[in-house]
UniProtKB/TrEMBL annotation:
Pfam families: Nucleos_tra2_C (PF07662), Nucleos_tra2_N (PF01773)
UniProt domain Concentrative nucleoside transporter C-terminal: residue ranges: 293-462
Protein name: NupC family nucleoside transporter
Family matches, as PANTHER family: PURINE NUCLEOSIDE TRANSPORT PROTEIN NUPG, SODIUM/NUCLEOSIDE COTRANSPORTER
Keywords: Cell membrane, Membrane, Transmembrane, Transmembrane helix
UniProt GO cellular component terms: plasma membrane
Transmembrane portions of the chain: 6-22, 29-51, 98-122, 171-191, 317-339, 351-369, 406-431, 443-465
Topological category with respect to the lipid bilayer: Multi-pass membrane protein
Similarity comment: Belongs to the concentrative nucleoside transporter (CNT) (TC 2.A.41) family.
Amino acid sequence: MYLAINIVGILIFLLIGWIFSHDRKHIQWVSVGIMTALNIGIAGLLTVLPWGRAAVHAAASAFSELVKVAFKGINFALANWVGADGTHPDAVNFVTSALLPILLVVPLFDILTYIGFLPWLIKWIGRGLSFITRQPKFETFFSIEMMLLGSTEALAVSKLQVQKMKPARNLMLAMMSMSCVTASILAAYTTMVPGDYVLTAVPLNCINALIVANLLYPVKVDKEEDVIATIADSSETIEAPADGASSAPAAAADNTVSTLDTATDGLAAQPAGAAPAPAGNRFAAWVKKTFKRDPNKPKKEPFFSFLGDSILGAGRLVLIIAANVIAFVALAALINKLLGLINPQLTLEHIFGVILYIPSLLLGLDPGTAWQMAGYMGKKLVTNEFVVMHEVTKTIWAFAPHYKAVLTVFITSFANFSTVGMIIGCFKGLAGKETNDLISKNVGRMLLAGILVSLLSAGMAGLFVW
């Protein structure tokens, strides 16, 4: 019976997206159907098939080993905070076990970006996803970027594209950004909740963000618009940022935008009617094109200067997360204290438990468990995922398998009230007034998008874990 409820729940979550859609007539149902089937297949692959589970378990173990390596550095600076030998985190606090390892993980992922591996990975996964899902190229790229880099970071590195796209497409990016994570923080998550389900949530959130954005605010993208901006685009006329900063003069050149589906990408153009070049010459041309430095491309920062900035950035990230957790936990406690003056049983958890109780039931949970799940869901929205993970870290391992799966997947994202403010603030510095006005008018849809993506991902993962 609970499996049937879980299936119905997924359909209802999709129906809610349709009900609150800005333009129901232009929803691309074929694409939505393809993405839904693909995501359910991925959920089954990662939770049921032995080799899929083995791959996820191996990835989770790799993150665990990475954290243990980070403990060595922590123990050198802060002796005995992670045990005498620097490998035993059981007796330490939240900051030491979950946040300080970020000082290693963030620079590691930044190095992968510096050498070009991470952008290469994003590019090719994005191409494949665009082909399968029939979605615009940049939107699929962005869905991968935001799952590896985080919302504000992904938007920042996509500045040129954001400034060239029409406001409706940027609103889609804003809604998708509500469901992101950061690869460098996944290691922290895996120290508090089951790592297998944390890593299962990442690809599910990626595709569900595309599904929900297409339901809530479908946008028709013409072939001429379906391009990826390059560095050379900075010389074109683009939408001025909201602060009124002027853009560079327009430069009329067709080669300033790179179209990803060009079959001859990287090869020299052949005159019409000319005989095909020999294979050896074509390969040499490809090598020359690939490894020749683009004069318009900015020079790389020296490696150790880059690494130093990355480490400082990681330190700031640790302080930001710690400050947010402390502030939000304290604010939640203060609100509960004030609510207790009205009724001792009245708390934020109970209020959101009532609001989110039905969605919790639709995840295939029994009534008692659904009430507890609804409280965790509400606390995550009001505070953040770290608060909930820290609260359940000692008890989640004893939960029933289905409950453990849906709870972990649901809380593995940045979807909360504070993320809304971060995204709006980021767009203020990247896009023009028209874009920012549209995003500000659709804050409700942004929050709904984050909730629906988390519910869909949890429901899909829960289908296969009982």
